Amino acid sequence: MLAQAFLALPLVALGLRCWGFRRLQARLNQGAALALHSSPLKSDLDQARATARLVRAAARYALWRPTCLPQSLVLWWLLRRQGIYADLRIGVIPKAGRLEAHAWVEFQGTVLNDSDDVYLRFAPFQGEGIIHESECLNLHQRPALERIENKI
Description:
By secondary structure, the protein is an alpha+beta fold.
């Protein structure tokens, strides 16, 4: 899985530049597992944390420094491939007259690839900025994501 993360990080970063956030996430969603666990297991949290550590390690040793969005998309995608539900979160904070955005992944309310105080540093979008697992197939109906994509 470390090799998958190591290879996926630059591909996802390139995909974000070529297709944008919404289209890339829809493509990743198509290539992920269809049989997601209907009820999360305790072992799923352990597996999700282990996967987050692998993505973090792949990012640390990459030839370039991937930002939070490619790292979060890769983690979200790898979890889906394992059949684990996860939510991709996007938050913002006003800084020097503009919005600074940040992305992270949560599983059952547990932040996987950031510190637990991420909510104190970034205000997550409510509704439109929270990409819940059940909504991924309806991304074409989410015009607010286009606005987010342009700001990230």
